[in-house]
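User: Okay, second chain of the day. Same drill as before: sequence in, structure tokens out.
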Amino acid sequence: MVSEDRVDRIVEQWRHERPDVDVSGMAIIGRISRLERLLRDRLDEVFATHDLESWEFDVLATLRRSGPPYQLSAGGLLESMMISSGTVTHRLDRLERRGLLAREKDPTDGRVVLATLTEDGRRRIDAALEDHAANQIRLLADLTANQRGELADLLRHLHLSLDAEPADLDR
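Assistant: Same drill. Structure tokens below.
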């Protein structure tokens, strides 16, 4: 039997107060929102043990998973991470000051700046990745392998459907 949580109580209160409104979406969206906050705290704890913030992990991980020479243009990072160009520049500045990446002009196109993981950056992201992956498995330990697969499929479907739909807040 599944236990009742805060979201169940909220949904039931709304059903009682406003039976004319379909609030069933709150059961999903409410949990996703609450889970994001809970998960973010637990993920940040692991990043902190490697002297990283979550955004630093994201940039370094994007470079690392790009494969040798662990190098991307600012535009490549921008596309991969879905953040603004000003944000990329600011993040690269901070990581370069920390010695975790280096920037240089692309030898084939001087207009392009390439960000490359330094050895220290690569060591840091490799160690953080191992702990991060283990932490994620630990956070999902109460789900069976089948449940994790089903959840991943459902979330992928929702993500793709929302990503394909333009955000129109005036609707």
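The mean pLDDT is 92.

User: Thanks, on to the next one.
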